[in-house]
Write a structure and sequence with these properties.
The protein is an alpha/beta fold and 432 residues long. The protein is built from 14 helices and 15 strands. The structure holds 4'-deoxy-4'-aminopyridoxal-5'-phosphate.
Length: 432
């Protein structure tokens, strides 16, 4: 480890809390530069980035650097003044959003967007209950931890709050119901959760779910699930919130929105991560009717949300996605990637499942394809072996045995070949 890197570690230990985790703790990466799908460390070593889903249009995009510098040197203030970037960004975002969603709120993070979605749903329904999916993560505030089993059900968590009910995540590979025809059972889970909430005296304001689940382990629900799940929630008077913080903005390739790709239209769409490509930015897009209910006399003001700077950056991200045709590129490269992984399954039976859409891919490792016993240790070893080959990936899922692939959308076919070769040769070395 270089002296400068060791020094950062020592200084972090002094004033930075320990529960800010560090990737590859035995050999952490001291980044100094990034470009496109590559990160560079202090020694100039280049890493292929398969894990960062925030820099959707690529790290350090020159158009974003230019727009940010121009706006910072012109004016940066708040939404109580009039300026074009706010309305330009809102125009473009609502043009891209599903038709019924036309009112935009801007925030500084995904958590703030989901927190605002809670307030909107409470205001509209005058209810306090919530339904979320097992393994879900929706953000870091107190109210969002309550609807995030990924946090409240794991170390340090306080368990499920009385106003929250959890339905099983629609995981057709490992969940309680399996296979491509399991949608009906998973929809019944939503219905049951709604009934439990009503019986507990907490009628449900909102069902919140990622259309495809990130922290849950890159899960793609079975066909027909999403629209039926949304209908089940609405039948109980709940609003539907699609958390597209990870999966929105073209990542899934065939559609700009994962919910629409799967046939569902939410009442509230929440965005974050890639919408600022690294600049802190989140958004909520909803119907005029819901926005009207929230306009109840209390001003909604957010000091930085909707600033000229953040809106200029967000708008430029949307322009770059269009100009560089990145969603279509993600669809093509993602399909090639998944085909490649499926091609490795024969030689490596530890690969139990390959799933995803576009450049949102999960590869699940098992000790035996018949029992589907999670191969958690193997997945971790693979990640650390790949790091030695300058390929950065992470694992997730309830059993931490799912390789998560969610690179910047500029990822190329050649990058895919490099990853597949590395995974193939590494598995040949380390698998049982
Ligand atoms: N929802 C999902 C699905 C997320 O992945 C995240 C971030 N990991 C959040 C919400 C919270 O976003 P942020 O960290 O920007 O507050």
């Amino acid at each position: 480890m270089k002296e400068a890197t060791r020094e950062i570690l020592e200084r972090r230990a002094r004033h930075i809390p320990r529960n800010l985790s560090i990737l590859y703790p035995d050999d952490p990466i001291h980044v100094v530069q990034a470009r496109g799908q590559f990160l560079y460390d202090a020694s100039g070593v280049e890493y292929l980035d398969c894990m960062n889903n925030v820099p959707q249009v690529g790290h350090s995009h020159p158009r974003l650097a230019e727009v940010a510098a121009r706006q910072l040197s012109a004016v940066n203030t708040n939404t109580r003044f009039l300026y074009e970037p706010l309305v330009d960004f809102a125009d473009r975002l609502s043009e891209l959003a599903p038709e019924s969603l036309e009112v935009c709120y801007f925030t500084n993070s995904g958590s703030e967007a989901n927190e605002l979605a809670l307030r909107l749903a409470h205001a509209y329904t005058q209810r306090g209950g919530a339904v979320a999916l097992s393994g879900a993560y929706h953000g870091t505030t107190t109210a969002l931890i309550d609807i995030s089993p990924y946090k409240f059900d794991r170390p340090g968590g306080n368990g499920r709050a009385p106003h929250v009910q959890i339905a099983a995540a629609p995981d057709p590979y490992r969940g309680p119901y399996r296979g491509p025809t399991s949608a009906r059972e998973y929809v019944r889970e939503i219905d049951d959760a709604m009934v439990r909430a009503e019986e507990a005296g907490h009628p449900v304001a909102l069902m919140i779910a990622e259309p495809m689940l990130g922290t849950g382990g890159q899960i793609v629900p079975p066909p027909a699930y999403l629209p039926a799940a949304y209908a089940a929630a609405r039948a109980h008077g709940a609003l539907v919130v699609a958390d597209e913080i990870q999966v929105g903005l073209g990542r899934v390739g065939t559609d700009f929105w994962a919910s629409r790709a799967l046939g569902g239209t939410p009442d509230i769409l929440t965005l974050g991560k890639p919408i600022g490509n690294g600049y802190p930015l989140g958004a909520v897009v909803t119907t005029r009717e819901i926005a009207h209910a929230f306009d109840n006399g209390m001003e909604y003001f957010n000091t930085f949300g909707g600033s000229p700077l953040s809106c200029s950056i967000g708008l430029e991200v949307l322009h770059i996605l269009r100009d560089e045709e990145l969603p279509a590129h993600a669809a093509a490269v993602g399909e090639y990637f998944m085909d490649g992984f499926k091609g490795l399954m024969n030689a490596h039976p530890v690969i139990g499942d390959v799933r995803g859409m576009g450049l949102f891919i999960g590869v699940e490792f098992v000790t035996d394809p018949a029992t589907r016993q999670p191969a958690t240790a193997l997945a971790r070893t693979l990640v650390s072996e790949l790091r030695k080959q300058q390929i950065l990936m992470s694992t997730d899922g309830v059993d931490d045995n799912v390789l998560k692939i969610k690179p910047p959308l500029v990822f190329t076919h050649a990058d895919v070949n490099r990853v597949l070769e590395a995974v193939d040769s590494t598995l040949a070395r380390i698998a049982l």
